Amino acid sequence: MTHKIAILGASGYTGAELARLILGHPDLSIAALTGDRKAGLEMGDVYPFLRGRGLPDLVRIEDVDFAGIDLAFCALPHATSQAVIKALPRDLKVIDLSADFRLRDVAAYEKWYGKPHDAPELQAQAVYGLTEFYRDDIRRARLVACTGCNAATGQFGLVPLIRAGLIDLDEIILNLVVGVSGAGRSLKENLLHAELSEGANPYGYGGTHRHLGEFDQEFSRLAGRTVEVQFTPHLAPMNRGILATIYVKGDPQAIYGALAGAYAEEPFLHVLPFGKAPSTHDVRGSNYAHVGVTADRRAGRAQVFVALDNLCKGSSGQALQNANLMLGIEETTGLTGAPLFP
Amino acid sequence: MTHKIAILGASGYTGAELARLILGHPDLSIAALTGDRKAGLEMGDVYPFLRGRGLPDLVRIEDVDFAGIDLAFCALPHATSQAVIKALPRDLKVIDLSADFRLRDVAAYEKWYGKPHDAPELQAQAVYGLTEFYRDDIRRARLVACTGCNAATGQFGLVPLIRAGLIDLDEIILNLVVGVSGAGRSLKENLLHAELSEGANPYGYGGTHRHLGEFDQEFSRLAGRTVEVQFTPHLAPMNRGILATIYVKGDPQAIYGALAGAYAEEPFLHVLPFGKAPSTHDVRGSNYAHVGVTADRRAGRAQVFVALDNLCKGSSGQALQNANLMLGIEETTGLTGAPLFP
Amino acid sequence: MTHKIAILGASGYTGAELARLILGHPDLSIAALTGDRKAGLEMGDVYPFLRGRGLPDLVRIEDVDFAGIDLAFCALPHATSQAVIKALPRDLKVIDLSADFRLRDVAAYEKWYGKPHDAPELQAQAVYGLTEFYRDDIRRARLVACTGCNAATGQFGLVPLIRAGLIDLDEIILNLVVGVSGAGRSLKENLLHAELSEGANPYGYGGTHRHLGEFDQEFSRLAGRTVEVQFTPHLAPMNRGILATIYVKGDPQAIYGALAGAYAEEPFLHVLPFGKAPSTHDVRGSNYAHVGVTADRRAGRAQVFVALDNLCKGSSGQALQNANLMLGIEETTGLTGAPLFP
Amino acid sequence: MTHKIAILGASGYTGAELARLILGHPDLSIAALTGDRKAGLEMGDVYPFLRGRGLPDLVRIEDVDFAGIDLAFCALPHATSQAVIKALPRDLKVIDLSADFRLRDVAAYEKWYGKPHDAPELQAQAVYGLTEFYRDDIRRARLVACTGCNAATGQFGLVPLIRAGLIDLDEIILNLVVGVSGAGRSLKENLLHAELSEGANPYGYGGTHRHLGEFDQEFSRLAGRTVEVQFTPHLAPMNRGILATIYVKGDPQAIYGALAGAYAEEPFLHVLPFGKAPSTHDVRGSNYAHVGVTADRRAGRAQVFVALDNLCKGSSGQALQNANLMLGIEETTGLTGAPLFP
Known about the structure:
2 domains, homotetramer, Rossmann fold, globular, alpha/beta, seven-stranded parallel sheet, Dihydrodipicolinate Reductase, domain 2, seven-stranded mixed sheet, 11 helices
C-alpha cells in the first residue's frame, strides 16, 4: 500500500533531501510539494538533480488539497512552522523538521528563539523525534518534532551515558565540526565558496547556540537535574557531515560498554571497535551514524566520537525513519542506501 | 530470484562503487570480494563506509569458489584483467571494468596500451559495453568490456550526431573537466588534497590519452571512415563527475533534435531544454547523465554538453546496467537512486 | 617617495586584493578606502584578514578628500564606474577595474552591457589596460581600464599568434576553467559552498559572455578584420585561478616560438617548455602567468594553455602593474611575491 | 648586507614554504637547496610555482659547500635531522624544522619518537624555537628547534594563562581543526583529495599525538609541576590552517586580559575583541595568528581560540622569524605579507 506524502517547504535543502529519499521508498509517493517564493516552478528547475523524476510542481501551501494525504513533512524555516501546522487538518500526521516544536517548555522556546510560542496547545502533543530514544511515542504521535542536526549528534554520544550514570554531568564538553548544508540555502557571505572553502571557524560559541535548548531539555530530563554542556560547533569546508568530539569524565571501558550495548540492535548506529574514531566521509549521504570511544592518556577521561550526515540522519533521514514508524511501515524502509564514497 | 555476484578487485574505487550499488539491488547478492594486497581484511576495514553491511571478507582470486556464482565484475587495474579473465570458468558471465577488452583490434590495444594483448581469443568475443548503444549485444554476451569514463561521456554527446551525419567529422573538439576519482586510489603527489584542491590543470593532452583509442574505434566505425577527435581532459578539484564540452560544426537545432530523439526513451539520459547546459552537481552519485545543446553566436557551430558521474554512469553503474541485461533483470533495477545534492 | 592611493569600492574582492598587494608595496600608501553600504566600518571588520594593518576606515566616496591623492583605483561594480569617475578631479590618475571603460566603441559597450555609455568623452581617453600589450599608452594615460580576467587570460594566449598571423582566425576556440572569486562577493545560490563545491558547469556559453566584447575588439583590431572566437567558461570549485585551453589551427612549433619570443623579456609571463601545460595551482595568489603549447596528434592543430590568478594578474595585480607605470615606479614593484602553494 | 642561506630538504612543503618566503626577503639569498631523491632537478620541476625565480637546482647535502653559508634551515623528515645536523660545520647557524631537537629531555624524545636520540650533546645546546617566548635565547643560539605546528598553536593560547596562574591546570582541553599540509607531502590514501575532501575525522587522539611531548615540556616547565592536557586534532578538508579551540576553567575576563597583555606588542599576534573568535581563512599564507576569548554560559569557564597557518607561522614563517633574530635582522623582515583571501 502506498502512502501519499506532502513536503511543505520543498525548496530548502531538507525538503530536497526528503524528496531524494522518498524517490527510493517503495511505499511512499509524493503528492504535493510546496515552496513559497518558488511556487509555480517545476521541482527540476529549483533542483535540477531531481529533474525527470515525475515529481509534482511546487505550489503554495494554501493550494494543497490535503484530502488523501497521509502525512506531511514540514521543512519550513524556523518560526514559520507553528502557524502553518496549526492550520493543517487535525487528522493529518505531521513531521516538523524545524525547531518550532522541539522544546516541550514554551518558556524555553521563547528563551532560545526570542519569540513567544504561537501554538502551545500543539506543543503539548508534539513528540521529540530522536527515533532511537522515542520510538514508541513516535509510533503513536500525530505531530513529531525532528531534532536539530547538532542536537541529534550530541545525543547519540551522550544519552546512554547519562542514562547509565557513567559520566560527570558537570564536565561535558561537546565540540563539533559541521558541514555547511546545516545552515540551509541561506545567502550569506560566509557561506560562499570563496569564503568558506579552505578554512575553518567556530560559530555559535559561548553558550549561545540554539541547539543547547535541546541538550538542556533532554540531558536534564534524563539526569533528573539540570545538566548544562559546554558546546562549540565549528564550520568546516564540507557540505554534509557532523563530527562530534565529546570530552567526558568517566571510565572509558564502561562508557564504551554502555554505547555498544545501547546500540547493539540499532539498524543505523554502528559502534566502532574500542579505540577507533569515525569519519564523516564514511556516512555521507546515508542514514547511518558511526560512534567511537577512546580513552585519554589520563585515567577517568574519554573521548566519545559521533559522525553522521546532518541532512540525512540529522534531519530528513531521521524524519523519514519517524514517518515509517507513524505509518506502520518497517522502520528502515527507504533508508538503507549505502553512503557515497568517495 | 537472487543472482550471486563476485567483485574481483574490490579494494579500488570502482569495486567499492559496485558494492555500494549492489547493496541496494534487490536481485543480486555479493558472494565474493577479492583484493590482492588487502586479502584477509574485512571490507569495512578497507572501506569503512561499507562497515556493518554483511559483506564477505576480501580474499585472493584463487580462493574464490566460482561454482554458484552467476556473474563476476572484474574491477582490476588495466593490463591485469586479460590474464585473470582467461583463467575464469568458461561459463561464468564476466563484466570487465578495465581497459583490457575495450578495443576490438588487438593492434590498437597494443598501440594505446604499450603491450601485446594477452587474450586475443577472448577479445574476439568481448562486447563493448556502452549500454545505450550495444544493448542487444550485451544481453547475449558472455564478456562485456565497460567503457572508459571519459569515453562514455564523449560518446553520449557524439554518437547520435555521427550516426545521423549532422556534424563535420574533422572538426570535433572534446574538452573535459574531470573529477579526481577517475584516477583511482593511486598514491601520486598530484592527487593529494594539498596539491589538487583549489586549482585545475589539463592532463593527457595532445592526443595521448588512452581513451582516444575508444573514440577512434567507435566514431570511425559509425562514420565508415577514420574519425579523430581533438581531446583535452582537465583535472578539477572534485571527486566525482565529468563534464564534456564538445565543440562541433553543424546545425544546432538539428543536433539538438538528434540527441533529444536518440535519448527520448532512455531511462538514464536526460536531454535538457535547448540552450541549457548541465552541471555535474546534478548527477553526482547517480546513474543519470544530463545532456545539453547550445548554439554558438556564429551560425553552424554548437556546443554539446554532457555531465555524468564517472564512477557510477561512467563505470560501475554502467557495469551494473549491463549486468541487469545479461542476467535478464529489468535494466534499471538498483540504479534509479537520485543524485546526492548538495 | 610615497604615492598616496585611494581604493574606491574596497569592500569587494578586487578592492581587498588591491589592499593586500599595496600593503606589500614600498612606494604606495593607502590614504582612503570607500565602501557604500559598509561606510563607517573598519576594514578589519569587513575583511578580518586585513585586521591590524593600519588601514583607514571605509568611508563614502563623497567623503574622500582627493587633494593629495595621486591615484585612485576604482573597484566598483560594472555600470557604476562611469558616473563615479566622471565626478573625480580631472587631474587624478584613475585605474578602473570594472568593465565600464574597456570597450572603445560605445556602441559595442551598449551591445554587451545593455545600457548606453554614461561617459563617452572619458571613454575616448581611456587606455585598455593589458599591460604587456599597451605599456607605453598606459604610462602616459590618465584613465586606464583594466581588462576582464577571462579576457586577459585569452589574450595572453592569442595576441602574439594573431599579430604574427600564425593561426586560422575563424577557428579559435577558447575554453576556460574559472575560479569562483571571478563572480565577486555576490550572494547567489550557485556560489554557495554547498552548491559549488564538488562539481563543475559551463556558464555564459553560446556567445553571450560579456568578455567577448573585449576579445572581439582586441583580436579584430590586431587582425584588421572581424575575428569572433567561440568561448565557453566553466565554473570549477576553486576560489582563484583561470585556466584557458585554446584550440587553434596552425603550426605548433611556430606557435610556440611566437609565444616564447613575445614573452621572453616579460617579468610575469613564463612560457613552459614545449609540450608542457600549466596549472592554476602554480600561480595562485601571484601576478605570474604560465603559458604552455602542445601539438595535437593531427598536424596543424595545437592547444595553447594559459594559467593565471583571476584576482591578481587578471585584475588587481594587473591594476597595480599599471599603477606602477603611471606613477613612474619600476613596473614589478610590489608584485613579485611567489604564489601560495599548497 | 645579504646573508646566504641553505635549505636542506627543500622538496617538502616546509622547505618550499621557506623558499617562497625567502624570495620576498630583502636580506637573504638562497645559496643551496637540497633534496635527496630529487637531487639534480630544478626547483621549478619539483615545485612549478617556484619556476623562473632563479633558485639553485636541488643537490645532495654532501654536495653543498657550506663555506660562505650563514645559516641552514633543516626541513628534513623527523628522525633524520639529528645525524645530518651533527655533520654540519660547527660554526654554521642551524634552524631545524623537524621534531628532532624539540624535547630537551632525550628520554622524553625516546618516549614520544620511539628511538634513542642520536645527538644528545647537540640537544643540550638547542633552543626551543617558539619566537614569542624564547626571543632572547634564540638571538644567541646556534641551533634552534622550531616547534610542531600544533604545538605552536596550543602554546599561543595557553602560555600566558599558565604563566599567570589563571586556569585550572588539570582541566585543559585542546581541540584542533588542522589542514592537510601539516601531514607533509606524504603519499597516503587518507590524504588523497578523493578521501579527504568533503569530510572530517579526528586523528592522533587519546594522548598519542607526538606534539604532546612539547605541550608537556613547556606547560610543566612554566607551571613548575606536571601538566598534561587532553588533546584531539581533527583533519579537515583544507590545505593550510590550524584552529585551536581550547576549553579552560578560569575567569574569562582575566584570561582575556592576560592574552591581550602578553601580545599587545607582538607584531604577529592579534588578539580579537573579547567575545570574538578567529577563522583560519583570515591568516592563510601569512605569519599572523589571531587569538580570541569567549566566556562560556557557565561562570568560570572559557574558550580560547587560536588560528594560524601551519606552514607559515606554525613552521617556516616561525623559522624565518627566528633566522632574522639569529642573523641580527629586524625580526619582522620578509614576514609581513598579508594573508591570501579569498
